[in-house]
Design brief:
Elements: H1 19-29, H2 37-49, E1 54-58, H3 61-71, E2 79-83, H4 89-96, E3 100-104, E4 126-132, H5 141-151, E5 154-158, E6 166-167, E7 170-171, E8 178-182, E9 195-199, H6 202-212, H7 235-246, H8 248-266, E10 273-274, E11 282-283, E12 289-293, H9 298-310, E13 316-317, H10 326-342, H11 353-359, E14 362-365, H12 373-387
Parallel strand pairs: 2-3, 2-4, 4-5, 5-8
Antiparallel strand pairs: 1-9, 6-7, 6-11, 8-9, 10-12, 12-14, 13-14
This protein binds pyridoxal-5'-phosphate.
Length: 392
Amino acid sequence: MEALTKNIPIASPCFNGNEKQYLMECIDSTRLSSEGKFVHEFEKQFAEFCDAKHALACSNGTVAIHVALLAHDLKPGDEVIVPTFTYIASANAVMYCGAKPVFVDSEPDTWNIDPAKIEEAITEKTKGIIAVHIYGHPADMAPIMEIAKKHNLFVLEDAAEAHGALYNGQKVGSIGHSSTFSFFGNKIITCGEGGAVVTNDSQIAAKTKLLKGQGMDPNRRYWFPVIGYNYRMTNMQGAVALAQLENIEWHQAQRQQVAQWYDKHLQDLTDHIVLPVEKPYAHHAYWMYSILLKKGGEAERDELMKRLAKEGVETRPLFYPLHIMPPYEQLHKDTAAQLTATTKGKSYDATLPVATSFAARGMNLPTHANMDEDDVQYIAALIKENIKNLRA
Ligand SMILES: Cc1ncc(COP(=O)(O)O)c(C=O)c1O
């Protein structure tokens, strides 16, 4: 077998700060579980980083969404507006509460939830909106917040992919009523598995803290006024997360640089591919630099991914829209039928055509701090070589 010229993974964490030292401190101090200084310090500094009052560390980003929804009092039978184009955890967390995600289509350029399509999905059961900042580009928060205010809904920002992104100069995570982050191994900063709920609302913060810590009364040990969860972050996770957070500006700058290199080296391919946009209101965090094929569909996209893989470049397909996933397909059909029967004048297009069309044509390219311009040039040259003669 021929040796690969390069081997470029889709994601690659970079531990060039105090990660090892802090981890050793956990071992030496025997403080491995959640009661440790690193979790507390991480919570303090992450809240500051987000320009928010409170950050509550959790064991991962999915449970962060779950516990935040519970803190908003989401109950069985309630509905939550969720973009169809997101990672499945955004919708699953709604289901964990016994509530129902109602899927909304994307904007064609940012791929985020389309604020113009939210109101046609709102019913008397709607309690909140989950605004996901997909691949690191902030959702258009101003109209979303306005709609929420008009209908008395909460807004939860799912910022799992967008640490440090800005919306009109404001940090994502500090705009909605609550927000959640992930620190999974492929995220902008990571501690392997990890998450956080961020909020300016002291009541939401107190409820999150109670629920993520088994529901134990903070002033009375082993007294449990409610059924809670063990969703706590360990001190070892906190150690790595804090070390990563200390270098977050560097991690962000590396991604910006990679995105600029892609923009430069893919520029002459814009007849064939769509490059990511950065709206005037946005500072993109570039969790994943992602492209769309202008011609062809899923077969051609898959063929290009295969050819890149052969040359040592790992890519990922864009997320499939959630409304076609087996656990959600029937639920979505039923919801859509109810919505079209009851919405006056406005039409809810159950095919959610925008997200559906680009999910089949898009892919994430390697985006991480361990890449140099030569890697990006190599990937761009491979795309150039293959894009014109793609046949499924
Ligand atoms: C948009 C979005 N929401 C939620 C999550 C869930 O985070 P975690 O994998 O840490 O549970 C992810 C993570 O991959 C994500 O991309």
